[in-house]
């Protein structure tokens, strides 16, 4: 039996901002990362015992790739700011 694990990753900027609070706290200065519409970017992986297959849509829509909206610690954002970003494409067979 070939058991596989399928995982799908979506763009974290996709979707509509929903406040979790009761309006008592101001929204952070940078605002929400959500773009109030869908971004088609996704990566789907199917992991088997021997290999991992991947399919993806690498197109982002409705936003730029801005470091300030990446869900990573501020110190890491400051470290990578200004460094050229190399994008490694995932091969799909
Ligand atoms: Zn996106």
TrEMBL record:
Cited InterPro entries: RegFact_GeneExpr_CellDeath
What domain of life?
Eukaryota
The protein in question is named: Uncharacterized protein
Q: Which organism is it from?
A: Macrosiphum euphorbiae (potato aphid)
